[in-house]
Write a structure and sequence with these properties.
There is one protein chain. The chain has about 250 residues and is of the alpha/beta class. It contains twelve helices and ten strands. It has a seven-stranded mixed β-sheet, sandwiched between helices. A three-stranded mixed β-sheet has the order 6-8-9. β3 (about 20-25), α1 and β4 form a beta-alpha-beta unit. α4 (about 85-95) runs parallel beside α5.
Length: about 250
């Protein structure tokens, strides 16, 4: 059994190899406000200090995150924009040492969609949908969508979604590579996300960390980063143990 904890706007469950974090602002449809940002920064600090897998979800009640809190957003000025309130958090989530999975049920809109893009992988229900309506509110998708969305779905399609603000349903999201898996029923969502994390957890923790670091690195870092990472892993006792077990199985 994992240890459960509480934070402002969040429910947290600790398991040996992962943290399950549930957005918990149902009265605001899990809109990303200052309290939620602060609480997620605390989660990041924990995972930076003690690297584990992360499952981030809005639960299975038909909402992931309906964007930023528009009431707060309306009152922000240019200095707030330059402070990168949401962008800095989502960048920190993206840079977490171990793989992260977002489990999405219902709408992931605006900043909520960008929060899901900050995770490495996404699992959603058939009733999930994504959208970037920012231009219709007189702003840009300034917390990661302008660069993460093109990386996920390609430049032309990302521009269409950012220019029009149209919504993408689960079937299209799977087809264009915005999500990795779709489950039919909300009750299957968390099991599906845990199954994906269970598959990931079969790998060496150090190999996973270095693989994520390499994939997320700028092109100019390759192949040097790959060579150094492989050199570190070649001297790791975990590599020797895993390869010995593999060879022993082949003998039987």
């Amino acid at each position: 059994m994992g240890r459960r904890g509480e934070a402002v706007s969040l429910r947290i469950e600790e398991l040996p190899d992962r943290l399950v974090v549930t957005l918990d602002r149902p009265e605001k449809r899990n809109a990303v406000d200052a309290d939620l940002v602060a609480a997620l920064h605390e989660v990041c600090a924990r995972l930076e200090q003690e690297p584990r897998l992360l499952l981030l979800t809005g639960g299975t009640d038909g909402i992931f995150a309906a964007g930023a809190d528009i009431g707060q957003l309306r009152e922000r000025g240019r200095l707030d924009a330059l402070a990168a309130i949401n962008s800095a958090l989502f960048g920190r989530i993206r840079a977490l040492p171990m793989p992260t999975v977002a489990a999405i049920d219902g709408p992931a809109l605006g900043g909520g969609a960008e929060l899901s893009y900050a995770c490495d992988l996404r699992v959603c229900t058939a009733r999930a949908f994504f959208g970037q309506p920012e231009v219709r509110l007189g702003i840009i998708a300034g917390a990661g969508a302008t660069h993460r969305l093109p990386a996920l779905v390609g430049e032309a399609r990302a521009k269409e979604l950012l220019f029009t603000g149209r919504r993408v349903d689960a079937a299209e999201a799977l087809r264009i590579g915005l999500v990795n898996r779709v489950v039919d029923e909300p009750g299957e969502l968390l099991d599906g996300a845990h199954q994906l994390l269970d598959e990931i957890a079969k790998g060496s923790a150090l190999a996973l960390r270095l693989t994520k670091l390499a994939v997320d690195a700028p092109v100019a870092a390759h192949p040097h980063l790959d060579l150094v990472s492989q050199a570190v892993l070649f001297e790791d006792e975990e590599k020797r143990r895993r390869m010995t077990e593999f060879l022993d199985r082949k003998k039987t």
